[in-house]
Amino acid sequence: MHKISLFLFVLLSPIFVSQAQHLQSPSEFLGYELGTEFSRHHQVVDYFKMVAAQMPNQVKLEKYGETYERRPLYTAIISSEENIKNLETIRQNHLRNAGIVNGNSTSNDIVVVWLSYNVHGNEASSTEASMKTIFTLLTEKQEWLKNTVVIIDPCLNPDGRDRYVNWYNQTKSTPYNIDQQASEQNEPWPRGRANHYLFDLNRDWVWASQKETQALLKVYNKWLPQIHVDFHEQGINDPYYFAPAAEPFHDIITDWQRDFQTQIGENHAKYFDAKGWLYFTQERFDLLYPSYGDTYPTYMGAIGMTYEQSGQSGLGVLNDEGDILTLVDRLEHHCTTGLSTVEMASKNAEKLNTEFKKFFANKNVKYKSYVMRGSADKINGLKELLDQHEIIYGAAASGKITGYSYKDGKTGSRNANSEDLVVSALQPKGQMVQVLFEPHTQLADSITYDITAWSLPYAYGLDAMASSNLVATTVVGKTPELNTKNTNAVAYVSKWDHMKDAEFLAELLKQNIKIRFTEKPLTTRNSESFNRGALIIIRGDNKKVENFDDLVIAAANKHKRKVVPVLSGFSKTGPDFGSPDVKLVNKHNIAVLSGNYTSSLGYGEVWHFFEQQLHYPITSINTNDFARTNLDKYTVLVIPNGSYGKLFNEANMEKLQNWVKKGGKVIAIDGALNIFADHKDFDLKKNKPKDTTSVKNNLVPYAERERDNTNDLITGTIFKTEIDNTHPMAFGYDQNYFTLKSGTSAYSLLEKGYNVGHLGVNPKKISGFAGKNTLENLENSLVFGEERLGKGSMIYMADNILFRNFWENGKLFFVNAIFFVNNNAFEQ
Predict the structure, then answer these.
(1) What is the tens place of the pLDDT at every residue in 255-297?
(2) Helix (H, G, I), strand (E, B), or coil: what is residue 261?
(3) Among the CATH numbers 3.30.300.30, 3.40.50.880, 3.40.50.280, 3.30.70.790, which is that of 590-693+706-819?
(4) CATH topology for 24-359?
(5) Looking at 433-547, which runs of residues are DSSP E strands?
(6) Which of 32, 460, 566, 603 lies at 20 to 30 Å from 41 by C-alpha?
(7) Does the pLDDT of residue 18 top 60, yes or no?
């Protein structure tokens, strides 16, 4: 038998070699030289399908999801024939190494490398490179695959990529035009960078707000690779960036992770130097904000890296140094670094496995447990996020907890109960837990690429404690209570303090059920107490609604809302149901500005909020059409973050004002406040920073200017805000709210309007970086405000509560602004 097996092996080996030798190259398959055209997403998928079909013993192609526009998402798993046969064993061993799966790993010599391409749609060279990379691995680099499993995601953002590629293919000259001013070098709004909802998927890894990210996390957490690379493009005058990354590194990152980045960079440099290609390292791209395609994998134990190729420049462009940068060049560079990464993984497989296991040991943990208290809705919202990342949590056992109080900013203690949520740092993904829950971000350097604060207890509005002790947990299972109808009830009443309540409201409005809300606390005759904003669904308001009880109860059960049947509209305390303080919720017609002048990301945040979260219809109005738009068809106009200086000329401003005076409502977010600030007809004024004299600044040495400028920056920082929760915009909130401030813009308190949220006399940052010159200008600055204009309202939101869709505790301000603020008479 041994001789027969050996004979068959010798006989069959040339067959596998022959398969690789006859594998079609991307150029042969596509019918054009790779890099001379942009490939559409379906063509890329077809190429990977062909490779998998031709070499099934070495390639497994798996569909892991779909985009909002129904384009498929795939990973290709490439390795040796032996490894593909034992793929599930390799995966299980790998997860045992991380402690995710119980038991000891039986192998330490197989390493997993994940290569992610084209998360930004218009950074399109990397998807082209993915095809050349898989072809080269299978035809020239089989030796590396003996101890390496390579996972390739050829395109994380197919919708954005095809938006860019289709535009470019329709626009480009033949031959292509290398002039930077040519139309093919200048994308129109909203560009191809983001996904369908115009979200930046490279900043969504933790928040998982988008369909693509949610699907990606499921497959990524099945593997947890030792190396993950995210391929990008940057400006046309910057050559190529690769690891090691720039400071600041989060202090969770190990010495080994730092060191091996350098080793990989040195290997890349060897190939680039031989070709005469320029590159840079250790600049610009740091490892701090956890929701990137390099940091998220890093905090999950990988060597996480970003590679940036100069580009976003069609098939070719003449850069400022007089060199023509082509798509052929760009994909070649990406292919080289991808292959170099696999090479380094193969050469260091055992060491990578050893250090990967050490990462999950959770040594020197400052806070062992994070304990959260809040409404069931807020707790459940956080649980849903933790489930996305397969992070373990439990309910607190009874006992005393001592630790740092997020709310009070100091050490304190309290007794735990089974409603408290406990997340322990002593679990396999404990390093990520520490990053996401840390009360204060530790910064080794103030020059950072993104926001510097994100702590989940603040984002979810939870009263949290970080304890240096391990807090005991218990399993508490609760079956959600389903409501039953009561045909004798004059009304059903439901509390108001969470986005789930808003979803319930939207559902009822879409079914043409009339709803009221109370502007004052009330207690019913059967001693049920409700705070401001509580929804009151009165039978008498809905006489024409067939199956009234069934519809209300079905909606409540669908959204897991508890509705209390009330037998009398005569309240024990507070307003009766017929009081002027119990107002009808209007079914608003909402318009949102989109197009030029709006931030595409800002518009996308609003668009996604209405369609995917609130599930309430809107009409998008392109800014090019604003002058001829009939605003009288709408009752609310949302102006997302943007720069609108050229849009609101005298005629358009007059048009907007007249509409508001008749009863319209404008909700201006972030940069949109600049339309109205310091305008003679509005109460909104910018805070004027004190002059610190330009002479001193002019004496700062040239080499120190960038660092000196950080004194005037706020980079995503958490501040404690004082709230007037008697105002309808703040219904459902406490008197304090933690806001995420992403810039230095500051506005004075309104003299005539309502200052719903503001920073106090001595604003202090809770977490994140704020330059030393910024705090004084924030004194008594507006966060949320309302100004009445005739019958209508101007609503000012200085901080963008929809930013990246992760600041959950801010979203109810937005809903309140729509449905509760200045509630005009019902409009038919």
Answers:
(1) 999 999 999 999 999 999 999 999 999 888 888 899 999 999 9
(2) helix
(3) 3.40.50.880
(4) Aminopeptidase (3.40.630)
(5) 463-467, 473-474, 491-494, 516-518, 522-523, 529-530, 535-538
(6) 603
(7) no
